[in-house]
Write a structure and sequence with these properties.
The complex is a heterodimer of chains A (324) and B (394). In chain A, the strands form 2 sheets. Chain A has a two-stranded antiparallel ribbon. Chain A is 66% helix and 3% strand. The two termini of chain A are 32 Å apart. Chain A has helices spanning 2-9, 11-34, 70-101, 104-119, 122-141, 168-191, 196-204, 209-238, 241-246, 265-277, 283-313; strands spanning 44-45, 54-56, 59-61, 66-67. The longest helix of chain A has 32 residues, at 70-101. In chain B, the strands form 2 sheets. In chain B, strands 1, 2, 3, 4, 6, 7, 8, 9 and 12 form a 9-stranded mixed β-sheet that branches. A 3-stranded mixed β-sheet of chain B has the order 5-10-11. In chain B, helix 3 packs antiparallel against helix 13 (367-373), helix 6 (168-175) packs across helix 8 and helix 12 packs antiparallel against helix 14. The chains are: A mainly alpha (324), B alpha/beta (394). At the A-B interface, helix 1, helix 2, strand 1 and helix 10 of A face helix 1, helix 4 and helix 5 of B.
């Protein structure tokens, strides 16, 4: 019996290895065919599926097949970054108010709402994003600034027609909503562990509430908030169906405006798999496996980066990932 | 000061040997999983050559409905979906022991799901490619009806009831980003006397793998080979055009076009009523003879007629940009993608009955069904071809 338990301990490791191995195995033809240029190209071309298959780079493929992962990688990273930029301040603000300001009954209620929000299936959020949030953002929110942003490099990205509600902006907001509960609930639990005496000491020295929060409370929980943000980032990077629904699923070109259609790695895999299955050579499916590998690596890098960051700023190490 | 979190995972470092042992087991399990995943796709080679030389198999002999209860799955083309649902409603009423599920998932799914056996009937606007037939030699594509594709637009300010004249060259230039406004000289030149307002063009294409994409890109290739150099297919590498929008399914195309003023979109003719209801206009397209035709049953029928005698026994033929002077240029056979070898005799019998009933001019191909979706019935010669293909199912 202890032996069995011991083996069970290794199930996560085995699963991880099995998934990695299967992905690599499936992706081998694509890795050989696409080469390193895969990461610099923007095209997504299955080739002429009605022409006889040809051979190249040691792989049988439809003539004209060419794949590039750059737009997918950029889309994944940028949409998740937008989500973090929106979600982290809101989540920390929510947690601060809940812990420091609200009466216990109300703060319990808001905590309950956070948990319910975290439990909404992403496909429901996607539906709401298509029918309500997207049109609202493009017709009533983005229009506030879209025509007033100066036409200079970088800022130009935020200029221009605000689209139809399916694109980068809506996806960023949808992702922010999805990661907000994780970050807020974790931060709330962390804030509750900040010693009251220290905060009250700061206030006794003449600090206002917001000064005390900035000088004492927030630094106290900083590393924990970073950890929570990475949990959120991990979810945002891999979120599939909600993004597939509100991204506009535009493969084959880089995102050129804050409001334009785009795609992420995860969304591409789900929207393109059906088409890929009609490629008799199997190269299209292999390429999807390859971008799946890329997503795994990006998520891994984000986690490693976060660990290093947490270690650097960890003046006070606090439990991370409690609450939800 | 709060204390550091204690490590939860283990009480101490596990001994190195035990760890290595478990890793080896882990790798073995992992590789077994991988091998299992690979070997599961090797069962498509059991093809049986059961070609019944039945000559002109009459439809009534194929329409032998099973008496036992049986369920059949269909998925694929969103263009065929509305018609298939009309058929299914009637079939399930007449033969309550037959239950049929339908799905509007796109022709790509129709083909791949029929190939891997997930569904018995895959619906597709595109015929099977030679490469697909090579990997799945037991598949066949059976013509069910004749369909057409309209080119829709949402140009605010254009007087209602106006049908813009468009041709392959202009559409290719829109989808490659050369024509970016509706009052571009290329568009106005085709439409003398029509006051076209200045509206930026928003190109809409399908995000899923689609027979409609195959038909539209085939039209661009056939009618404007200089302007459109990409190979036609159910998935096309659309050129990078600013503001381009992708949509899923014909329903999604209608919604997307409605939401994006200035849009141009290709939509199956079975969605003509929805598209018109959404306020979208549809174009008169230039055919090979140089005439501009609207997608009506008469023009679709005329276009398909010139291909009837040329339709091969396999049913595989492109009818894009045909020679008929009064024909609409984008017409096609709607196909059922079916595996000749079904899982059981009962299922095979049901599939044969369903398909034979569908192409029967007195049943599924009757105007009471086809008129709802603006389709055209198969000509008698093609019904014979389809019946022969259906008779091969066993």
């Amino acid at each position: 019996m202890p032996q069995v338990l011991h083996l069970v301990t290794y199930v996560p490791l085995v699963l991880l290895l099995a998934i990695m191995a299967a992905l690599v195995w499936k992706a081998i033809p694509a890795i050989r065919y696409n080469g390193l240029g895969f990461f610099g190209r923007t095209t997504w071309n299955l080739g002429n599926l009605y022409a006889p298959l040809v051979s190249g780079h040691g792989v049988t493929h439809p003539p004209g097949a060419a794949y590039g992962a750059l737009p997918l990688i950029v889309g994944t990273v940028v949409s998740s970054a937008i989500a973090l930029v929106i979600a982290v301040p809101v989540a920390v603000g929510t947690a601060l108010v809940v812990v420091e300001k609200l009466p216990p009954r109300l703060s319990t209620g808001i905590g309950f709402c956070l948990e319910v929000l975290a439990g909404i299936p992403s496909v429901v959020i996607g539906l709401w994003g298509i029918f309500t949030l997207g049109p609202f953002l493009s017709h009533h929110v983005a229009t506030i600034w879209a025509n007033h942003v100066p036409d200079v490099p970088v800022l130009r990205f935020f200029r221009g027609p605000s689209g139809n509600g399916q694109g980068l902006f809506t996806s960023g907001v949808v992702l922010a909503l999805m990661i907000l509960p994780i970050i807020a609930a974790t931060t709330r639990d962390l804030l509750r562990q900040v010693p009251r005496a220290t905060v009250e000491g700061a206030v006794a020295l003449g600090m206002t509430d917001s000064e005390a929060a900035g000088a004492v409370t927030i630094p106290w929980v900083r590393s924990g908030v970073i950890g929570a943000s990475v949990l959120g980032l991990g979810r945002a990077l891999g979120e599939t169906i909600a993004v597939a629904m509100v991204s506009g699923s535009l493969v084959g070109s880089n995102v050129h405006s804050f409001y334009s259609a785009f795609t992420t790695i995860a969304a591409t895999i789900v929207t393109q798999l059906d088409g890929a299955l009609t490629d008799a050579s199997g190269l299209a499916v292999a390429t999807l496996a390859e971008v799946g590998l890329v997503l795994l690596v990006i998520t891994l890098l984000a986690n490693i980066g976060a660990r290093m960051l947490v270690r650097r700023v960890a003046t006070t190490a606090l439990p991370v990932g409690r609450g939800i | 000061m709060p204390t550091r979190r204690s490590r939860i995972s283990t009480d101490g470092p596990p001994s190195r040997r035990r760890f290595v042992g478990a890793s080896v087991i882990g790798l073995l399990v992992a590789s077994a999983l991988v091998l299992g995943a690979c070997s599961s796709t090797n069962n498509s080679s059991s093809s049986t050559s059961s070609s019944t030389p039945s000559g002109t198999a009459s439809l009534t002999s194929l329409e032998k409905w099973p008496t036992a209860s049986v369920s059949v799955q269909e998925t694929g083309s969103s263009l065929l979906y509305p018609l298939f649902n009309l058929w299914v409603k009637q079939i399930e009423t007449s033969w309550p022991n037959v239950s049929i599920t339908t799905g509007s998932t796109g022709s790509g799914t129709g083909i791949s799901d029929a190939a891997n056996g997930t569904v018995q009937i895959g619906a597709s606007d595109a015929y099977l490619s030679p490469a697909q037939l090579q990997t799945s030699p037991t598949l066949e594509n059976i013509p069910l009806a004749i369909s057409a594709q309209e080119v829709n637009y949402n140009v605010p300010g254009l007087s209602a009831g106006t049908h813009l004249k468009l041709n392959g060259a202009v559409l290719a230039d829109m989808y490659t980003g050369k024509v970016t406004n509706w009052n571009n000289a290329e568009v106005t030149a085709l439409n003398p006397g029509v006051n076209i307002p200045s509206v930026p063009v928003v190109t809409v294409h399908r995000s899923d793998s689609s027979g409609d994409t195959f038909l539209f890109s085939s039209y661009l290739t056939a009618s404007a080979p200089q302007s459109w150099t990409l190979s036609p297919g159910t998935t096309v590498a659309w050129p990078n055009v600013a503001g381009a929008v992708a949509a899923q399914g014909n329903g999604g195309m209608v919604n997307s076009c409605k939401a994006n003023p200035g849009c141009v979109a290709y939509i199956g003719v079975s969605y003509l009523n929805q598209a018109s209801g959404a306020g979208l206009g549809y174009a008169a397209l230039q055919n090979k003879a140089g005439n501009y035709e609207l997608p009506t049953q008469a023009t679709s029928s005329a276009a398909a007629a010139s291909f009837t005698s040329r339709t091969p026994a396999s049913g595989t033929i492109s009818m894009i940009d045909g020679p008929a002077s009064t024909g609409y240029p984008i017409v096609n056979y709607e196909y059922a993608i079916v595996n000749k070898t079904q899982s059981s005799a009962l299922v095979a019998q049901a599939v044969k009955a369903i398909l034979a009933w569908s192409i029967d001019p007195n049943n599924g191909n009757a105007p009471t069904y086809l008129d709802n979706v603006n389709f055209v019935a198969l000509p008698p010669q093609v019904v014979t071809i389809s019946a022969k293909l259906i008779s091969k199912i066993s």
